[in-house]
């Protein structure tokens, strides 16, 4: 990857997010490959850390067929979450802060004891303290929400904000729980946690493996989003969104109404 302007690409993506302005895809014209794209993501997230944000977790992307089909990319990806991206459960966002926000239902893990590099992955119950229903608001910085694999990786996997519902102890089975995404009381998407790599616990193995390749370690106390079980839906002003996961409960998020003070 000689000659790729990692910092320059990260700056473009960062500006696009800060000003909620779509940009064209960058990977093809700059020759960005997957490793180069993760380097751009690191630089992009570093811009946030430089202004005082803190890393609080990791998110997986495209761990379900529904998501892969929606965006036309069929590789599992991962991105970073910071404290500023977290919106309280039941909180409000302003769609004007985003380009073309979409919401999707997620399952979140609260990490407890994650293996050291080289240490065998222990049991899921050792690594995860609690689980929760969650909502992720994604917002691709690329025009028309259209991107290649390296493009979406560089763009921190479209991460926008996230909301975590109440934490519960890890239930016996996580592999076949019903998932609903409701908008204004109507069902917008229906799925099952089985759609997430067959079992969302596998998303953690993938996250450890894939992030580990780039020298990124998961930390105790971090949040881990396993990836959406269903396609994402556009978030409209005034919408009230609920993600309902069987046995785990509900996470909710509102979009401010047009003209309302937020
Ligand atoms: C990429 C991010 C995917 C998920 O849960 O699958 C993701 C995108 O869809 O823009 O967050
Ligand atoms: Mg997601």
UniProtKB/TrEMBL annotation:
<keyword id="KW-0456">Lyase</keyword>
<dbReference type="InterPro" id="IPR050772">
    <property type="entry name" value="Hydratase-Decarb/MhpD_sf"/>
</dbReference>
<dbReference type="InterPro" id="IPR036663">
    <property type="entry name" value="Fumarylacetoacetase_C_sf"/>
</dbReference>
<dbReference type="Pfam" id="PF01557">
    <property type="entry name" value="FAA_hydrolase"/>
</dbReference>
<dbReference type="GO" id="GO:0008684">
    <property type="term" value="F:2-oxopent-4-enoate hydratase activity"/>
</dbReference>
<feature type="domain" description="Fumarylacetoacetase-like C-terminal">
    <location>
        <begin position="91"/>
        <end position="250"/>
    </location>
</feature>
<dbReference type="GO" id="GO:0005737">
    <property type="term" value="C:cytoplasm"/>
</dbReference>
<protein>
    <submittedName>
        <fullName>2-oxo-3-hexenedioate decarboxylase</fullName>
    </submittedName>
</protein>
<dbReference type="InterPro" id="IPR011234">
    <property type="entry name" value="Fumarylacetoacetase-like_C"/>
</dbReference>
């Amino acid at each position: 990857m000689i000659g790729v302007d990692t910092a320059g690409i990260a700056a473009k993506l960062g500006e696009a997010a800060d000003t909620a302005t779509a940009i064209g895809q960058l990977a093809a014209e700059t020759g960005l490959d997957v490793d180069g794209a993760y380097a751009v993501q690191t630089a992009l997230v570093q811009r946030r850390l430089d202004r005082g944000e803190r890393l609080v977790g990791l998110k997986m992307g495209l761990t379900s067929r529904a998501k892969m089909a929606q965006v036309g990319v069929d590789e599992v990806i991962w991105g970073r979450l910071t404290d500023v991206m977290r919106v309280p459960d039941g909180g409000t966002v302003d769609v004007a802060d985003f380009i073309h926000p979409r919401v999707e239902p997620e399952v979140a893990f609260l990490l407890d004891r994650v293996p050291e590099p080289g240490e065998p992955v222990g049991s899921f119950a050792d690594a995860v303290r609690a689980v929760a229903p969650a909502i992720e608001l994604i917002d691709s910085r690329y025009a028309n929400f259209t991107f290649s694999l390296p493009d979406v990786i560089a763009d921190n996997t479209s991460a926008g904000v996230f909301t975590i519902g109440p934490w519960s102890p890890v239930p016996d089975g996580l592999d076949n729980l019903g998932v609903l995404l409701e908008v204004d009381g109507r069902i917008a998407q229906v799925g099952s946690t089985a759609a997430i790599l067959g079992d969302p616990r596998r998303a953690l193995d993938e996250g450890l493996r894939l992030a580990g390749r780039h020298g990124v370690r998961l930390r105790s106390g971090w949040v881990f989003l396993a990836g959406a079980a269903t396609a994402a839906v556009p978030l409209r002003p005034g919408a009230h969104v609920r993600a309902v996961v069987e046995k785990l409960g509900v996470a909710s998020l509102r979009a401010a109404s047009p003209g309302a003070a937020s």
